[in-house]
Every structure is written in C-alpha cells, then in structure tokens.
Amino acid sequence: MEANDSLVIKAPKKSPLLPRLVVLAFAMVCGVYICFICLKQINTNNGGSTTSNKFLDVKVVHQLCNSSGIEQWEIPLVHYPNPVTFSREECVCNPVRYFAILSMQRSGSGWFETLMNSHINVSSNGEIFGKKDRRANVTAIVNVLDRVYNLDWFSSASKNECNAAVGFKWMLNQGVLEHHEGIVDYFNMNGVHAIFLFRRNLIRRLISVLANSYDKSKKPLNGTHKSHVHSVAEVLILNSLISSI
Ligand SMILES: *[C@@H]1O[C@H](CO)[C@@H](O)[C@H](O)[C@H]1NC(C)=O
Ligand SMILES: *[C@@H]1O[C@H](CO)[C@@H](O)[C@H](O)[C@H]1NC(C)=O
Ligand SMILES: *[C@@H]1O[C@H](CO)[C@@H](O)[C@H](O)[C@H]1NC(C)=O
Ligand SMILES: *[C@@H]1O[C@H](CO)[C@@H](O)[C@H](O)[C@H]1NC(C)=O
C-alpha cells in the first residue's frame, strides 16, 4: 500500500511539461486580466471625479446631520441650510422647512403670518416681492428665494440660528402668476411647502379686492393707501366706501 501511495504522488512530477505550461499560461492570463480591470476602475473614478465629487461634498454635509427622526416621505422637504451671513452654531443640524404663503390682499394673510411669527422658531418675512425689481424676471426671483431659504434674508421677522421653518408671504399679483413656471420648478426642486390662503367666500374676496384697488387709487384715508386698517375710525371710513362701490 505504501509503495503504491508513493508511486501515485510521484507520478505527476514525471508528467510531461505541457500541462504545467498550460497552467502557468492560464495563471498569467488571469493576472493580466485582473490588473486590466483594476486600471480601468481607477481610470473611470478619476474621469468622473469632477461631477461626482461635488455631489459627494454636498451629501457629506447633509450626512453629518442625523435625520433618523424624520419620516421617509418628508426627507426631500427638510433642509440643513448653511447661511453665508452667520453661523447656525449648535443648531446646524436642526432641520428647516421652507414655506411660502400664497394669497391675495385682504384675505387674512397678515393675521396668519402674525400667527406663524408668534412661534419663536418660525420666521415669515412678509411681502418681500412687493418691490418690483425683486420680481422683474425669474433670475431675480430665484436670487431672492435663495437668500430667504438660506436664512440670509434679514427682516423684522428674522429669527435666530435655531429656525425650524422659514418663508414669506407672496401675493398672487406680485409676479406669481407671471412667472409661475419658474416658481413651480423652484418649489419642486427645493422642497418648498406652498400654503394657499384664500377667502372661502368668493363674493367677499371680490369685494375685498375691489375695495383694495379703490382705496389704492382714491386714498380716502388722509391721502394714504392702507392695506390694513388700524382703528375703528378707519374701519368705518372703509366700510362706507365698500357700501358705495
Ligand atoms: C441618530 O439618532 C438616533 C436616535 O435619535 C440614534 O439611535 C442613531 O444611532 C443615530 N444615528 C447616527 C448615525 O448617529
Ligand atoms: C426652538 O428651537 C430650540 C432649539 O432647537 C428648541 O430647544 C426649542 O424647544 C424650540 N422652541 C419651540 C417653542 O419649539
Ligand atoms: C432681471 O432683473 C434684474 C433686476 O431688474 C436685472 O438687473 C437683470 O438684468 C434681469 N435679468 C434678465 C436676464 O433679464
Ligand atoms: C387724518 O388726519 C387727521 C389729522 O392728522 C387725524 O386726526 C385723523 O384721525 C386722520 N384720519 C384717518 C382716518 O387716518
């Protein structure tokens, strides 16, 4: 038995050279192939680095913040802005929601905005598109929106670095309807909540709008146009106007 075993083991050593060469050649081909694949991967990584690295950089900033308490569906609507004008310090990972109150004059949007601003961490910046040059074109609008949502817009309603929601009030006749396509794109791309606030009673809405434009042109309140009345006397004057329209 032992003699037989040793014979079996020794047998391959005496085999001809050809099978060994075949195995060697196979190993070499495999080695070259693996090297080739590695080189190819390194090349593609370098080639695509300009775009993919930028993307990664943005991702890394976001990944530093723990979004585990946020529902999956809400993740595109939650942001971690990085303001240019100040540092969010310990609140850098507080998620921020973006909103815009879309409304018409005299529908209670001022009251609604005051209500929002009464929360310490909510900032609604008022009618920032009241100025014409800010809504001259989509580029100008996007610039303003970027500043507001990056927390770099300063108004009396601006809050602290721990803001949890930021937005503003936007009247439909302040460029919303004219530039609606660009605005909808921006809202979708940046996850902005659009809050529509209208009077439910259509006839009252119409009367409000008429009274507003009448007041704007005639200015019966001591020659000033007031979109909001602040005293009983002013209310009475406007009331008499509305009944005379
Ligand atoms: C995120 O926070 C949760 C608790 O709110 C914790 O269980 C989890 O480990 C945290 N994840 C990371 C990556 O820090
Ligand atoms: C405002 O934000 C701070 C910091 O995140 C938080 O501690 C505080 O509870 C918030 N205030 C309210 C009223 O939610
Ligand atoms: C957009 O409007 C701003 C402000 O009025 C102006 O400076 C800018 O040139 C305009 N841009 C375009 C592309 O029309
Ligand atoms: C108009 O001005 C006068 C004088 O300043 C003031 O007494 C009055 O209350 C004003 N009326 C209104 C409606 O603002």
Features:
five-stranded mixed sheet; 3 domains; binds 2-acetamido-2-deoxy-beta-D-glucopyranose; elongated; 245 residues; alpha/beta
Q: Assess the beta-strand content as a share of residues.
A: 5-15%
- Straight-line N-to-C gap: 122 Å
Sequence of secondary-structure elements? HHHEEHEHEHHEHH
Number of strands: 5
- Quickly count the helices: 9
Transmembrane segments: 21-42
Protein name: Sulfotransferase
Keywords: Membrane, Transmembrane, Transmembrane helix
InterPro entries: Nod_factor_sulfotransferase (IPR052796), P-loop_NTPase (IPR027417)
Could you walk me through the main structural features you see in this protein, from its secondary elements to its overall organization?
By secondary structure, this protein is an alpha/beta fold. The chain folds into 3 domains: 2-47; 74-198, no CATH class; 203-244, no CATH class. Helices cover 51% and strands 11% of the residues. It has 9 helices and 5 strands; from the N terminus they run H-H-H-E-E-H-E-H-E-H-H-E-H-H. Strands 1, 2, 3, 4 and 5 form a 5-stranded mixed beta sheet that branches. Helix 5 (138-149) links the parallel strand 3 and strand 4 (165-171). It starts with a helix and ends with a helix. 13% of the residues are buried. The model is unreliable at 46-60 (pLDDT under 50). The structure holds 2-acetamido-2-deoxy-beta-D-glucopyranose (4 copies). The site of one 2-acetamido-2-deoxy-beta-D-glucopyranose has 3 residues, from loops. One 2-acetamido-2-deoxy-beta-D-glucopyranose (NAG) binds next to loops. Keywords: Membrane, Transmembrane, Transmembrane helix. The chain crosses the membrane at residues 21-42. This is Sulfotransferase.
